[in-house]
Recover the amino acids of this structure.
């Protein structure tokens, strides 16, 4: 397993300053914590992937939340989206606990690696195409190092599009919840609604729906 190489990639990502707008935003948020997190030291840097270096399944989100990953320093940690995702992974037997609140909370991922298309928190959760393209080489290298991964679960249309670019999926399929596409190398790409509050509060994405897609993605990741 390329654990050392993944660790070096993560160390490199944390130092990235390629996107001036994202650098300014993540550092501004870190310097002015939300009142509910007053006194906490924010991470305020790019947030690398996290999980099992021998993962069969890779989960790709959009970007860290300003007061989630940008605060805690771990992807999908300390925010509502992370609460939903890790609870679903735990129910599927892919995480050691159902919540992710801090880097030191003891969480272990088992068979899964969780990452994002963009590594810095963007204003209004909307990276520009240029910012996406600046960050995609990290995802390319990450997926190459995750040699055991056989399936990629993309959370939301932004992450799905980024994965299509990275995996060179042509013609580019339309994003849909539960959509499955087999790639020329035998890997799978699966679409899923992002577990954002916009989707979970409105019922567009339910826990049962998320569980079903995670279960199916894990089946495909182990189908060869």
């Amino acid at each position: 397993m390329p654990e050392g190489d993944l660790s070096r990639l993560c160390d490199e990502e944390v130092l990235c300053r390629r996107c001036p707008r994202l650098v300014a935003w993540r550092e501004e948020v870190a310097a002015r914590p939300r009142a509910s997190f007053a006194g906490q030291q924010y991470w305020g840097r790019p947030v690398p992937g996290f999980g099992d270096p021998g993962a069969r399944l890779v989960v790709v989100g959009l970007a860290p939340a300003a007061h989630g990953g940008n605060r805690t320093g771990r992807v999908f940690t300390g925010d509502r989206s992370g609460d939903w995702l890790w609870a679903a992974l735990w129910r599927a037997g892919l995480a050691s606990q159902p919540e992710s609140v801090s880097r030191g909370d003891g969480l272990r991922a088992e068979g899964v690696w969780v990452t994002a298309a963009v590594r810095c928190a963007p204003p209004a959760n909307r990276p520009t195409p240029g910012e996406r393209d600046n960050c995609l080489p990290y995802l390319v290298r990450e997926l190459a190092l995750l040699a055991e991964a056989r399936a990629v679960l993309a959370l939301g249309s932004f992450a799905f599009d980024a994965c299509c670019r990275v995996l060179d999926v042509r013609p580019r399929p339309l994003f849909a919840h539960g959509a499955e596409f087999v790639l020329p190398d035998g890997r799978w790409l699966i679409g899923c609604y992002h577990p954002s509050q916009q989707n979970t509060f409105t019922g567009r994405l339910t826990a049962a729906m998320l569980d079903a897609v995670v279960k199916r993605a894990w089946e495909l990741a182990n189908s060869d």
Remarks:
- The mean pLDDT is 96.
